[in-house]
What we know:
By secondary structure, the protein is α/β, with parallel strands linked by helices. It has helices at 23-34, 41-51, 54-65, 71-82, 100-113, 127-135, 176-190, 192-199, 212-227; strands at residues 12-16, 37-40, 91-94, 119-124, 137-140, 146-148, 168-169, 203-207. The strands form 2 sheets. A 5-stranded parallel beta sheet has the order 2-3-1-4-8, with helices on both faces. Strands 6-5-7 form a 3-stranded antiparallel beta sheet.
Amino acid sequence: MDGTSTPTTAPVLILLGPPGAGKGTQARVLEEQFGLVQLSTGDLLRAAVAAGTDAGKAAKAVMEAGDLVSDEIVINILRDRLKEDDCAKGVILDGFPRTTVQAEALDTLLAETGQKINAAVSLEVDDAEMVTRISGRFTCGGCGEGYHDSFKPTAKTNTCDKCGSTDMKRRADDNAETVGQRLEAYHAQTAPLITYYDGKGALKTIDAMGDIARISKDLATLVAKAIA
Length: 228
Ligand code: AMP
């Protein structure tokens, strides 16, 4: 995105919703169904922390406290990732934007490549449920498949149903104290984006409580229309 890029009509989808709403799970399903690329700023930041980059060093403590990483760091990370070739297929933004400043930066980035936002989908959930959802979740370190102690356990204890790996990971920030702070950050800084995208005519909403397969089906119907 250096101003010389060729305009593209590759789709851009945004998944909005509090932590635990299922953005990551549903983004992975959409990625497979529609051949789009999931871009999770949380994953990109966790990779930066693990790699010990300057951005990762600055983000680590903020993430552990459940606060939002600075707009500057997150926008830079996303801008770099969007330049990679695979993004030409179209992207699903999972966890970005999270502030109005980020939403405006995204508008500017997309204007440079002639892209538009096909839909910003708000996953609607009850706050009370989120703590339970987040506290029980874990991910396969081998293939990234997501699980939950109560809602989606592995068939065989500690073994991934998809790839057979026994390397299960739980996030450092998925604990009761941090979850409260993350929900607060969502309501104060991210929820206003629902109005932002409604004003642009891009907002769609999905009932994201209940059965994961039903939510995926509703979302697929909506996305098929949005990217047609
Ligand atoms: P997530 O994996 O989306 O739940 O993000 C985990 C943590 O990474 C968040 O609690 C924030 O500290 C940070 N983070 C992820 N995406 C963003 C973003 N767009 N803006 C600011 N901080 C972010």
